[in-house]
Fold this protein.
Amino acid sequence: QQQVKQSPQSLIVQKGGISIINCAYENTAFDYFPWYQQFPGKGPALLIAIRPDVSEKKEGRFTISFNKSAKQFSLHIMDSQPGDSATYFCAAFKAAGNKLTFGGGTRVLVKP
Amino acid sequence: EPEVTQTPSHQVTQMGQEVILRCVPISNHLYFYWYRQILGQKVEFLVSFYNNEISEKSEIFDDQFSVERPDGSNFTLKIRSTKLEDSAMYFCASRKTSGGAYEQYFGPGTRLTVT
């Protein structure tokens, strides 16, 4: 079974600090690795994504680092703000299977 | 900005009843999906749909579940005989094309409560 493992389960960071969330995957056939942000009672919102032929992607305060040989990728949230408090899910997409496999989620709390 | 919409936002039903959850995907998208999320847990894939047929389904998506695109805009998930364990948030998602655009956009979800 294809799995994506995410850590930590929860994270508390001070305003202005860096939040780091890690994911590891088992299947090398994945084609695309997105991160989703979810607020309580809402649907997952696409935040940033990376393809396996790229080692890093940055969009504003959000950066994905990707290590293909280690089958790991991580999300860095720079200058964390209270509005970033949410649950973050990593995911992996295999085009041939046409589905997203999600990690277990990380609840991030940014303290003012 | 176009978005996926879902109705109803909350559905309460009794065990054994049929429910239909509705979704309107983004208009020029060709791939449609249903996912579910049990409270406090991760998002789980149920089914993907392309060209009017199921392209992939999970082990969760058993004979009690079915999907349909009844017209050019709606995409539905039917649960024939609901069970208590079907209580969850159900999310519809859509994706644009097969040409390397892998981004999936999710709707706000339908909270299904089975009593």
Observations:
- The mean pLDDT of chain A is 94.
